[in-house]
Each structure stands twice: as structure tokens, then as C-alpha cells.
Amino acid sequence: MMVMDLRTKARLISSGTVEMPEIFRPSGPASTAGPGAGERNIFFSSDEKMVRLGVADGSPLKLEELDGGEVAILEDGVEVARGILEKPLLHCPRQAYITVCERCIYDCKFCAVPKLSGGVKSRKRVLEMVAKANDTGDLEAISLTSGVERSPEEEVDRVADIVKDLRRFGVPIGVSVTPARRSSEILKAAGADEIKYNVECLDPQLFTKVCPDVSLDRIKTALERAVGIFGENRVFSNVIIGLGESDQTLQEGIEELAGMGVLPVLRAVYPHPLRAGEVEMIRPTPERLTDLARRLKRVLDDHGLRGDVAETGCYRCTGCDLIPHRDL
Ligand code: SF4
Q1: What are the strands, taking DSSP E only, across 56-132?
Q2: 83 bridge partner residues
Q3: Whose CA is nearest to atom 4 of ligand 1?
Q4: Residues 6+ apart with CB under 8 A from 76
Q5: 3-state SS, residue 138
Q6: What's residue 277's pLDDT?
Q7: Gap between the Cα atoms of 190 and 174, Å rounded
Q8: What's the pLDDT at 33?
Q9: Using one digit for the tens of pLDDT, what is the confidence trace for 9-62?
Q10: How far is the CA of 151 from the centre of ligand 1 (A)?
Q11: Which of 86, 87, 90, 91 has the most ligand 1 atoms within 8 A of CB, as the residue to mutate?
Q12: Is 317 close to ligand 1, i.e. is its CB under 6 Å away?
């Protein structure tokens, strides 16, 4: 059987999409989280590795149904991996991963959220969604993410209020928000177990172009402070790969984050059609993804950090990235 090894997962992430027969098409709402917001996804799992792929006609990868509930992924008619489709709970398997505020006052050039300008979920709505997910018996973690409707401070208070209510489900809770004054203290006191503040781009010059309204230094300061409050292995930061950054700046930035006790999430850029032409967005090759993941693992090892202890979010899910200590 053709299992998904590291090289194959890197190939699939690099492609990012799969074409699939109508019968398999995921139903239900499209994802509202992050740069790929608005797209439909599947989760393909094989030999303890899992990958998320967007569903797209014309993708070089095709999904084919096999006997016994299995599926195969084909490239140019040749099978590259065989496995099963995992059913997402809310956004991803086994987690209720919810975007509270689907709009944002900032204008990071790779992100579809400000363009989609979606709704804002009430505390009641989030509780209902998690309760429904919990009823399936599959709920293992809750992850909340949020754009910024009016100010980062207000958003942190909104999410903290929701976190307090979600403690009743007795599963780990992770939060990904824009840092604000005392945000780590507030969210920890509310009951969050893990936190993510995204640096997005580790090249300081490029950062000012892709995230013109945000301060890289301020995010780094917030991350350092967060480790003091949440502890090592409990603080994460997304780093987008494919915006034109050099591997040298990435290496230095990864070292800096890991030196603080932060786990970087190396995320292949998603060239959302709503952002076409605004900024360079080139999906990294499988070789680059694998090389960067190996470097990241070395750096985490050097700093005594672990990629396999995360209880929430992307290090737990593993769908979009090559996760050290899980995939390699
Ligand atoms: S890795 Fe993160 S962004 Fe990707 S599907 Fe999983 S939870 Fe969502």
C-alpha cells in the first residue's frame, strides 16, 4: 500500500488542492479561518499523517474512491498515496476550531478575512456550536481564532469571555488573536491553555509591506511575554512561507522565536483569489518545505522544545504543515 510519507505529504501541501468526484464533495459551510477562508477542504489521512487539501477543479491531484472506504490520490494518473478521508468536526478533525470574528480592521496583503468581511459570532452562538460538536463524542480540543472588529483589546475581552464559558466542556482551549495590552494575562486567567500570536513574516523589510498596519516587534514582545505566562511549548506563531522571504531570514527568525520558547508554524502561503496581484505569493516547493521542516526540527531540538505536546490548534491538527516530532 502506498502510504503518505514525509516527501509525499510535502508534495501534497505544495500543491495544496485536489480534484474530486462530486459524490465526495464536502458539504456544509466553507472554512472561515485564516488566509484560506471561504474555501472547501478535505482531510486525507494515511499512516498517521494527515493533510488538508482544498477542493479545486483542474488540480493536478485527483482523488479516487477505492473499495473498503479507502481513497487514493493520483498525480498524472499514478497513485501517490492511499488512505482515508477524515471528517472534520468544526473546520478540522477532532477540534471545534471556530473563527469568532470573521472580519478585520487590518489589511495583511495575503489574508482574505478583511476582504470577506464576514460576521461576528456571539458567545451564545459559539457555545451552541461547541455543544453540538461535543454531542458527537469526538470533541478533543477547542481552538478559537478571531480577526479584529474594532480593536485588539476589545477582541481579547470578547474571546476571554467566551473561553470562560467553554471551560465547561473540559477539553483544552487554544486561542489565536492579535496581541493587546495584557492579552496573555487576560486569556490565561480566563482559562486558555495555549496561545498563538502570528508574526506572519519573519523578514522585517517585507513585513512592513505585507502587514502594513501591524508591528513585528510588538508581536515578538507579546510572544516572549506569553511564554512567561503559558510556558514553553504552549505558545505558537504562524510564519507564512512564499511571500518572497529568504531562507536565511527564516532561519534567523525561527532561531529567535524558538530561543524565546515559541513554536513557529511554517505555513505555505495560500494565494487567495481575493488577494491576487497584491503581494508575491508563491507556493513553496516540496523540497523547500521539507528542508525548512528539518531545519525547524533541529532548532526545536536545540532549544528543548517539542512539536508533539500541543493540545490545540495547528500543531495538534497537522493538516497544513510538516510538524516536527509528528511528521518527522
Ligand atoms: S493545520 Fe491549522 S489551519 Fe490547517 S486545517 Fe488544521 S487547524 Fe486548520
Answers
A1: 61-65, 71-75, 78-86, 91-92, 95-99
A2: 71
A3: 320
A4: 60
A5: coil
A6: 87
A7: 11
A8: 54
A9: 999 999 999 998 876 665 555 555 544 554 689 999 999 999 999 999 999 999
A10: 25
A11: 91
A12: yes
Mutate to test the pocket of ligand 1, among 289, 314, 318, 327 (most ligand atoms within 8 A of CB): 314
> With a cut of 50, which residues of the chain have pLDDT below it?
34-35, 38
Q: What are the grid coordinates assigned to 302, written together?
A: 536545540
Name the amino acid, one letter, at 199.
Answer: V
Question: In whole angstroms, how far apart are CA 186 and each of 40, 82, 113, 231, 315?
Answer: 34, 45, 25, 15, 23
Quote the pLDDT of residue 102: 95
Closest CA to 293 of 326, 244, 319, 257: 326
Helices (H) and strands (E) in the chain, counts: 10, 13
Q: What is the pTM of this model?
A: 0.94
- The residue to mutate among 42, 44, 113, 320, having the most atoms of ligand 1 within 8 angstroms of its beta carbon, is 320
**CA angle, 105 then 110 then 115, to 5°:** 45
Residue 254 C-alpha to ligand 1 middle, in angstroms? Answer: 20
Ligand 1 neighbourhood includes 319 CB (under 6 angstroms): yes
The C-alpha cell that represents 149 in the structure block: 472588529
Could you tell me the three cell numbers for 273? Answer: 483569489
Strands (E), the chain: 17-18, 41-46, 49-55, 61-65, 71-75, 78-86, 91-92, 95-99, 141-145, 173-176, 194-196, 235-241, 263-268
Ligand 1 centre from 261 Cα, in Å? 21
